[in-house]
Amino acid sequence: MAIPRPKILTAFTVPTGGYSVDIQHGVAFGTSATITVPAGTYFLSGDDRDDDLYAVFGKLVETQIKTTYITASVYFSPNFDDDNPRSLIYVGGMGSGGNFRIDWTTGTELADVFGWDNTTTTEFAGVSNGGPENSDYQHGYGWYANEDGLLRDDTVEPIDIPNSPQSISPSGYVKTQHIASRFTYRMQLQFLKRDLTFSRGVSYGEESKYPYSRNKGLECWFREAKKGTRFRVYRQGKFSTDTASFSATASANTTNTITISSTTFPIDPQQFKGAFVYQRDTSGGSTAIFDSFYIESHTATVLTVADHHRTAFNIGTSNPFYIIDGTYETYVLDLSQTSQFAPTELPNIDRYDFEINMLRYES
Questions:
Q1: What whole-number distance in Å separates Cα of residue 63 and Cα of residue 309?
Q2: What gap in Å lies between CA 220 and CA 199, rounded to an integer?
Q3: Of 177, 179, 189, 342, which residue is most buried, by most CB within 10 angstroms?
Q4: Where are the domains of the chain?
Q5: How far, in Å, CA of 259 to CA of 317, rounded?
Q6: Which of 315, 312, 310 is nearest to 59 (CA)?
Q7: Residue 179: is it exposed, middle or buried by C-beta count within 10 angstroms (0-12/13-18/19+)?
Q8: Quick one: CATH architecture of 241-325?
Q9: What is the reported pTM?
Q10: What local confidence, expressed as pLDDT, does residue 156 receive?
Q11: Is the pLDDT confidence value at 330 over 90?
């Protein structure tokens, strides 16, 4: 099993009215449209569910440009080759001389969360396939361990703390009244570099201050978490062939199923329910594009995956796919235990330890 590299994804809320950005496509970029992400709570997960901001935005963009380029497809995801993932966009199938542009100056909120400079545009001109192109910065609302060994200790699974008053009589009779349980979790991070730790009081999406990088420091997460914002903790946050727990080649696909015939999936219990299908594809250019799907359930031979935007047809039947055990729990910060952001420096080497105490989120 690969060494865990945890990641934390923080909920991002789009308010009533949504967040919008303008795009242009077609001859001489002559067709304009406004893409509006509807109000809701999202995560920058790249798992293709309906609360995945990448999937929601990518589907809206693809639907619009297909009014001009009917065979166009849009890949929009974290760049899983990046230790601190930037957003990645690739537009394929526009045909000879295709044009596509996102004007981030008209949608600064979305630019900031996806990691693009909100004074610029992303433009593909006169090409059938545009990109892949990376954002200027790491995407917001995510923290990534970018080295092995940064997770010193955790409780592996949430700890059940019962609220159960109990009385014992002098003769030894016991009465217990179980009222409820709450679940806690503790994660101890160690040996973090300074730029992975601090932001000098800057939140996600805001301009960084020297010497720190935009959206990268754990302090950005803390500034959201201290408000009571919920977040997901993934014990294994690195997507690669090295962290995969299973690999196979599909024998057939539908929009949301992947079938194998040469081996079987363990099903007692469903070992991969809640994990991720992952495939890296370099056909789009020198930078890879990615298909990643959340596994909703499976039998011994068939995976059923989320398909808000991408479809499992993209996995194909010629190249292997991988399963990453990226299951997660959702928490809020336990401010009674972690009341301030005060990492401890390892003496004189500019590396930092920090313990996070959490309460499992109950909706």
A1: 10
A2: 6
A3: 189
A4: 1-237+327-363, 241-325
A5: 9
A6: 310
A7: exposed
A8: Beta Barrel (2.40)
A9: 0.94
A10: 86
A11: yes
